[in-house]
Description:
The structure is a single chain. This protein has one domain (29-106): DNA polymerase, domain 1 (Orthogonal Bundle). The chain is built from five helices and no strands. The protein has helices at residues 37-45, 51-55, 59-69, 75-85, 95-106. The longest helix has 12 residues, at 95-106.
Amino acid sequence: MNAPTQNPIAPVENHMPRRTTPPTPETPLHELWNLSRTTAAWLEELGVKNYGDLCQRDLHQLWLNLQLRHSQVTKLMFYALWGAVHNQHWDRIPEAEKEAFEVFRKSL
């Protein structure tokens, strides 16, 4: 997945962004929207070390790899990954992305 165009952080009502500037390829995972230090550690187990690495991965496959390793991973993890890549809160994921993820998930 290619990195999206860098755009300013869109404020989300009642949510504080972790960053005040768009991420760079070197930005650590735990500094991205939606990603805790635990999630960052799980991603690092899969070779994803920073924002640049995350942007290069297929998010559906990455979610599946996380889900296979960690049974508590749900569809919200996909939303969180999408939000991290797009520098947005997870609840801003477009319906088309949710639908595409559901098609993927049901195909497993």
